[in-house]
Amino acid sequence: MDNSPTALFENYDDDLKQLVSSLKGKLDGDVQTLRGEPRKAALKKVSDDLDEAEEIISQMELEIPSMPVSLRKNFQERLATSKASVDKVTKQVRDLRASTQREELLAGAGGWSDDPYTDDDPSAFSARTRLLAGTEMLSTSSQRLDNAHRVALETEDVGADILRNLRGQREQIEHTRDTLTGADASIDRAAGTLKKMIHKMYQQKVVTGAIIAVLVLLIILVLWSKIRG
């Protein structure tokens, strides 16, 4: 089995495409026909599957820094496309949830009167007020979710940049370590050569001293022989 970063990315990407396709089919088909609690349960199941999709995207992001530099740009673009497809499904889920809550508010209010702006029916006006308040609250919550999602995406980008920087620093450290190892080997060789030169120098000194001693002894013998003669 090929466990290279590119192969793992491809496998994650295939799994994500199948999951997103399945979720779109549910949202465009079964969920649209459901109402009330059944629709809520179906949306809950889709949300759980979206958590799995986010996990797959996280795994894909982890593989990119390990790829050769020449391939990263292409896979980063594919990752961005995959994120966009998941974001569309997430937005569709939020819209359906908001629609479900509006329907529940309408059902709880007993529906609209023929003239929703009339003040003749206090209950209708009250229902309209509650519905507007609920709609505004949903809109605010949706904006908060969008902001949170945007911050999460920015955090992911920062994390990916940090991983790339750490990988680059690790490569620099490994290169420095290799250079130091080579320098250490060169120093060892130089030290060995220096020891040999010192040893030869001592040998030469000993030989030179022996020659001088012999010459001095010969001179003494010559002088001694002349004195005796």
TrEMBL record:
GO terms for biological process: Golgi to vacuole transport; intra-Golgi vesicle-mediated transport; intracellular protein transport; macroautophagy; retrograde transport, endosome to Golgi; vesicle fusion with Golgi apparatus. GO terms for molecular function: SNAP receptor activity; SNARE binding. InterPro entries: SNARE, T_SNARE_dom, v-SNARE_N_sf, Vesicle_trsprt_v-SNARE_N. Residues 135-197 form the T-SNARE coiled-coil homology domain. It is a single-pass type IV membrane protein. Belongs to the VTI1 family. This is t-SNARE coiled-coil homology domain-containing protein. The gene is vti1. PANTHER family: VESICLE TRANSPORT THROUGH INTERACTION WITH T-SNARES HOMOLOG 1A, VESICLE TRANSPORT V-SNARE PROTEIN VTI1-RELATED. Gene3D superfamilies: 1.20.5.110, t-snare proteins. Pfam families: V-SNARE (PF05008), V-SNARE_C (PF12352). Coiled coil: none annotated. GO terms for cellular component: cytosol; endoplasmic reticulum membrane; ER to Golgi transport vesicle membrane; Golgi apparatus; late endosome membrane; SNARE complex. The chain crosses the membrane at residues 206-224. Its main location: membrane.
